[in-house]
């Protein structure tokens, strides 16, 4: 059975060498997690604040706008965990700032998540990119 990229990122804290090996072993950059949330390696790396892993996954074609079932997109996960550098990286790479998380427990946009977290720096970055 090939490696699962989400699991590799989660277990190795986004070690790029391990991610390269997983890709060689048959994983894909958009592998979804093994739980009901459908996290990917990108959403996991974003929540960890691992800019190197996020950049590598994006370079390899990871879906920057993938929405997990509960926690939203990589952008929303980075915002929720206060990962400003990852937020900047995702913005520079063209993430959709107006994706809407339709989860019943957290219906909101990335901007609403930043405001809810009290992170004015990230809220300003999002507004500058057209977030509503």
TrEMBL record:
This protein's name: Ankyrin repeat domain-containing protein
InterPro entries referenced in this protein's UniProt entry, alphabetically: Ankyrin_rpt, Ankyrin_rpt-contain_sf
Originating species: Triparma strigata
Spans of repeat ANK: 37-69, 70-102
Keyword Acetylation: no
Keyword terms, alphabetized: ANK repeat, Repeat
Pfam families: Ank_2
SUPFAM superfamilies linked to this entry: Ankyrin repeat
């Amino acid at each position: 059975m090939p490696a699962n990229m989400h699991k590799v990122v989660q277990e190795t804290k986004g070690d790029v060498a391990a991610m390269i090996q997983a890709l060689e072993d048959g994983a894909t950059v958009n592998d979804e997690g093994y739980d009901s949330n459908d996290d990917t390696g990108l959403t996991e790396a974003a929540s960890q604040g691992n800019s190197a892993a996020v950049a590598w996954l994006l370079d390899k074609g990871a879906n920057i706008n993938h929405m997990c079932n509960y926690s939203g997109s990589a952008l929303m996960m980075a915002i929720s965990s206060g990962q400003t550098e990852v937020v900047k990286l995702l913005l520079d790479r063209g993430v959709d700032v107006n994706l809407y998380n339709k989860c019943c427990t957290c219906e909101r946009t990335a901007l609403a998540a930043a405001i809810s977290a009290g992170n004015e720096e990230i809220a300003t970055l999002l507004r500058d990119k057209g977030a509503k």
